[in-house]
Structures
1.
Amino acid sequence: MASTDATVTSTRDAVGAKPLRVLLVGSSGGHLAQLLRLEPWWSKHDRAWVTFDKPDARSALSGESVTWAYQPTTRNLKNLVRNLWLARRTLRNFVPDVVVSNGAGVALPFFMLARRRGIATVYIEVYDRIDSRTLTGRLCTPFSDLFLLQWPEQRALYPRGVFVGPLY
């Protein structure tokens, strides 16, 4: 997470102020469904998606610019490396102002490289994890400029997180 409140405030301002280039990164299924709930925001921006090549993703993202990530990502070193190269290529070809993700594992390589390139990152902790931190949340925290929480109880787990309420 960013080291100062000024960084968090400037990230919030940048994310809401003008049309942006947004890269939305998330696993298919519930993670993708939560990102889709942000349509009132992301529909106003030039955007691209990174997710898994699954029927729900193909249907929901029909007509969108999508890069298919490698899976599985959980504890799979080979696909972590493949997704790191994918992140490098994607961030070079579609240079976003901000990378937004709610996990899962596919988020990490994109957040690592975005941070290295000075691209803002916003992580949204998932809706269904209230009393413990997710693995991806723990791993992405150091690379997140803004870490958003859907439950007030999550503040105890992520003291620098910002409570925004549920996306559902």
Note: The mean pLDDT is 91.
2.
Amino acid sequence: MAKNQSQRPGRDVRGGKGKAQQQQAKGPRGGKGGPRGGGKPGKGSFTRSGGRSEAPRKQAGRPGGGSGGRPAGSGGGSWIEGRRAVAEALEVGMPLKRALVADSDGSLAELVRELEAAGVPLERAPRARLDALSSHGAHQGIVCQAAPFRYAELSDVIARAGEGDALVVVLDHVTDQGNLGAIVRSAEIVGAAGVVIAKARAAGVGVGAFKTSAGAVLHVPIAQVPNLAAALETLKEHGFWVGGSTEHAHDSVWDAPMGGRLCLVMGSEGNGISRLLLDRCDFTCKLPQRGRVESLNVAQAATVMCYEWLRRVSAEGAEAPEGGRVSQGAALESEGVSEPAVFRESDSFMVDAAASYDIDWDL
């Protein structure tokens, strides 16, 4: 789904033949589209030709920041803009330092009453000031300053994934907060266990992400890690298969093993997936296209990929025998591919997150 791709043969960084080479010899591992076991006829083998994901042709925002500027002296902490995002913050009890409300905007009366009831200091401000604080210019007349966003640990994401089918989205240095928020929104909607981002040279959760996620950043664990490659290895140790999204992949998303326990890697806007992470992908795939436009942007592509995972696991759930679903790997236990892994219904979302705004997932 992106340009600037490098053609790289399949190679298993853990030694031996590359995974693409193994699959050419043995056939695909995806039973019912899953990554383990024999594939259905017609699916074909999938090879790793390497590649990078997504490269939208637009100016990326500052790493960790929104695309818009922020006046000096605006204070620390995250800025949340838009009525829905502010309402979501109130609903989960997220600590808000203050709220700036547009002058003479009567349509905000109900939300203002809720802010007052929550004890949030209110300040009337001209729209020009709100425009300066806004990352997208769509603040809808209200901007709130919150405490700095508290990230989850990778272990929280893994714990929330349980033992069965699960999706974790890993972003390889996505730099635009708008893209980050949109991806988090898609991940939350399909029931992903979490999103993993880099600590350096990448967008963090701020006003832009709050806005484009429509508050989803408050409902799904977002882990910020110092080393994405190490995070992929940790996820593999917990039964995840790593798939990279790149327009130069051999297989389309329809033929790739997109179900089961999947770690989906999406690349940055300008450079796609780094070579370091490509070496750790078990497979790569792309979105088919007929039009002339070069590719979708990273947020759009991630949405399609997330929904393909949901379609696969939902279809397998409908076909499962009475008594519950099993993961794709467990379905092929008889072939000696993996140990059984009973699917567990999705765990509850964040509970009592507002107590001290520590991320504490009740599993």
Note: Residues 19-57+151-335 form a domain with the Alpha/beta knot fold (CATH 3.40.1280.10).
3.
Amino acid sequence: MLGTYYYHEIIRKTIISFGTLFNQIHIRHQESNGNNFSDTRVPIAYGPRQKFLARIVQQPELNKPIQITLPRMSFEMVSIQYDPTRKSSVVQTFKACDDGGNIKKVFMPVPYNIGFELNILCKLNDDALQIIEQILPYFQPAFNLTIDLVESIGEKRDIPMVLDSISFQDDYEGDFSTRRALIYTLSFTAKTYLFGPVAESTDGLIRKVQVDLYTNTDTTTAKREVRYTVTPDPYDAGPDDNFGFDENWEFLGDSKDFSPTRKIDL
């Protein structure tokens, strides 16, 4: 069972999608008359907060004239945890078509929560507040992102990005040589799904659906009254074709039952 190679890049796509949410944040500084004299796009990079704090207080290159520029943002994945509240059957499968129109069989995905931390580092509190106010109104407390989880079968899902908490830290203590840094930390949870290998399916497309309706819920004594049948039109239509449906209602007065294995009324 284990050892079958597959890689859907789901965790990687989730990380990239999360970072893309915040790559167009801007801050503006105004003059006393209200005119804007600077509009700065806040850079964002993947990495832990401690890495950027170290860059602030240290000089990595002796010939570099300036230190790290503030404001800036960093984010990182901090946890991966199974979510039992969204669990589905472990044996349930569904069928999908790949890019070539071939039928594939896929087991239901496994729900996992991926934890993220977004760190906002600023020198001025007004800069930090500008960034915060451009983020918080979109999370109530979740913001849905559509991610192509399994590209080979076109499996796209809306992944909620849930804002869990906000914390604030002001490193103002120290001597005059210590650089101040305002740090806002936003914790998020991405409720994503992980898929297993995509297998070939020996079954064909479902081209007929038949439903028998009974007089009450006790099918041991109740008699079937109506049979509903639906088939595609045309019958040999493919998944990507333009097709409709043929519907048929048949009223029955017998006490027979349909055998799914023998495909006859008994």
Note: Helices lie at 10-20, 49-57, 125-135.
